[in-house]
Amino acid sequence: MTHRAKASAARLLVLAGVFLAAGLVMRSARAEAEMPPRAPLRGFPIQIAEWHGRATPDLDAREIRVLGADEYLVRVYHEGTGQPVALFIAYYGNQRTGAVIHSPLNCLPGAGWQPVDRRRVLVDVDATGMEALPRARRIEVNRVVIQKGEERQLVLYWYQERGRVVASEYASRLFLMLDAVRYGRTDGALVRVLTPVGADADDAERAASRLIEFVRTIFPRLNGYLPA
């Protein structure tokens, strides 16, 4: 077994342990609390500053079943004649009953995409309305280059749950357990944006700048749809 395979297996074992612990804790935690009011994702703006969006085809029945979300949004946005940015949000109102947020990295290989570069980056955002975050702060998100054949995409994603922004799937599960016990809340969401990227370093930087600009634009608007 290669070093990478061993590391991947160890990660899966640790994550499985965290998931099991989370399930046991949430079953014994206080009953689900009443959720703060939130707007449905379908009402998320089509026009945001200079970005104009359009709806894309719905997920098929199998994808919806695997996702297990209470609500999801799929849009493609353009700024002028630039490259598109795809926005995906999956919202879960209750993660006690088996439907839980999972990393996009678990699904991408099944669709033929392989991660070829993974790291974390910091993005400066306006966090107005999020009680757990100062108004102006840096959030940590996952940055992944994925590839299928000759096609490459750059992805940024994070978990936005009960007023927090978390990049780590492990940390997301730990906060889920704590909040189930303390507040009776297990709601949360996955937010993912992606855009095409070429093979050269300059194009990768342009793609990263495009995604970061888009994240900064949409982030203050997410609060009404993903309750703190």
What distinguishing features does this structure have?
228 residues, 30% helix, alpha+beta, 4 helices, 9-stranded antiparallel β-sheet
Structural commentary:
There is one protein chain. The protein is an alpha+beta fold. It has one domain. It is built from four helices and nine strands; from the N terminus they run H-E-E-H-E-E-E-E-E-E-H-E-H. Strands 1, 2, 3, 4, 5, 6, 7, 8 and 9 form a nine-stranded antiparallel β-sheet that branches. Helix 1 packs parallel to helix 3. The radius of gyration is 18 Å and the shape is globular. The protein starts with a helix and ends in a 6-residue tail after the last helix. About 3% of the residues have low confidence.
Question: How do the helices and strands line up, and which of them pair or pack?
Answer:
Elements (H helix, E strand, L loop, with lengths): L2 H26 L18 E2 L2 E5 L5 H7 L3 E9 L5 E8 L21 E13 L9 E13 L2 E11 L2 E3 L2 H14 L5 E9 L4 H22 L6
Antiparallel strand pairs: 1-2, 2-3, 3-4, 4-9, 5-6, 6-7, 7-8, 7-9
- Measured on Cα atoms, how large is the radius of gyration? 18 Å
How many DSSP helices? 4
Low-confidence stretches: 5-10
Structural class: alpha+beta
In total, the number of strands is 9
The gross shape turns out to be globular
- Mean residue pLDDT: 85
Tell me the distance between the termini: 43 Å
Quickly describe the structure.
The chain has 4 helices and 9 strands, in the order H-E-E-H-E-E-E-E-E-E-H-E-H.
